[in-house]
Structure formats: C-alpha cells, structure tokens
Amino acid sequence: MKKSFVMSLVCAGLLCFSAQTSFAQDVVDAADDAATQTSQVVQNTSATAPQASGGAGSQFYQVLFGSGPVGFILWMALIGALVAYIYLAIDCAILIQTDKIMPQALISNVEASMKEGDVVKALQFCENDPTPLAHILSAGFSHVEEGFEVIDEAIASAADVEVEKIMQRLTWISVVGNAAPMLGLLGTVQGMIMAFANLAGGTPDVGALAINISQALWTTAGGLICAIPCVLTYYGFRNKANNIVLKMTIMTTELIKDLRNVEVVSE
Fold this sequence. Notes:
Layout: H1 2-52, H2 55-66, H3 68-95, H4 98-101, H5 104-116, H6 119-127, H7 132-141, H8 148-200, H9 206-256
C-alpha cells in the first residue's frame, strides 16, 4: 500500500514537472516569435523610410510624370495659365495708371491752347501723344468745324473704343481665372477615372491608386491656386480702370466745353 502511494506521488511529480517544462518552452517560443515579428516590422519601416522622406515635392513629381499624357498636358496648361496671369497682371499694373491714360502734361497743354482759342495747336498736342485721352480729344478736335453736337458724338465714340481697349486687357485676366478651375476639375475627373480603372482590374495596385488620387487632388489645388489671384486681380484692376475712366470723362467734358463758341484759327 505504501509503495503504491509513493509511486503515485512520484508520477504526480513527474507530470507537474513535465507540464511546467512545456509551459516554459511555450513562453520561450512566443517570445521568439514576437522578436521575429518586431524585427520584420523594423526592417520594413527602414526600407520604406527613404520613400517617405521625399515629401510633397517627390509626390508632386510622381503625379506630374505618372498621370499619363493627358495628365501631363493638363499640368502644362495649368502652368501656362499661371504664366499668362503673371504677364497680364504686370502688363495691367504698368498700363492702367492715371499718368498712362490721361497724362497731366497733355491736359495742361490742351488747357493752355483752349484758353488761347487755338484749337489747331491743341489738336497737334493730342496727335503727338499716344494716350487714350489724346485719342479721344483728337476725335473731337478733328470735327470742330462741324458743330458741337458732332464733336460730342465723335468724342463719345472714341471714348467707347478706348475704354474697350483698356477693358480687353482685364478680360484676358478674367478668362484665365475662369479657365484655371475648369482645367483643375478636368484633371480631377481624369485622376478619378484612372483610380476606378485601377480598382476594376481586380487586385488594385495601391501605389498606382495613390498616384491617381493625388492627381485628382493636386490638379484641383493647382487650378484654385491659379484662379484665386486672377479673380482678385481682375476686380482690383477693373475698379481702378473704372475710376480712371470716370475721371477721364469729366476731364474731357471740361476741355471741350469751350468748343461751343470757339473759332478755328486759320493760318
């Protein structure tokens, strides 16, 4: 009886020892697996780190040259629109000025000639000046012998032509401002089409899909970046031009009012 009891204790002890050994081995194996997975994650992170270090500039480069011929053409059109806006803005900033449209020297010379009653001299000053005010006054002084009503009509017609020339420069800025968002929207549609085409092919290429979505977003941003300054510049220059045209109209009226009773000096 005692022997059987002792044998039972020995067997129980062996079983406990075996269980503990197995548990310890399982813990060691689990730790090894965790270490292996951690090493793989670190390796993958280090492998992808150089790609992420490129930033937005690298992504834009991939979008510019990785969105196909249509995408590249759209980007060239957006860049061309931005260059055209810069040129037109500088051109309007130089030309839409009071001194460029109605110079004070011309006004002083015409006023002095009109006080002397010498319309021919005033006409010569206007013909030698290339500004819009000079063209308007030349149209009026050229019809001085036909009466004040004809003079007034000639000045009104010439003023309409000169104002239209000024506004045409601003219209081109408006055209660029309206075209840029549409180009960006077209690029957005093209990028989404390519993205869905990638998804429809079965197993999608995640990298290509990301480039397609980037194409859609970058072109939208590019169109807005070009359009917003165009709109602000257009309305700013338009208000300035309207103000100058109003002053020019008032000045023209003042300069020709004496033509009601003026007599032409003939040599």
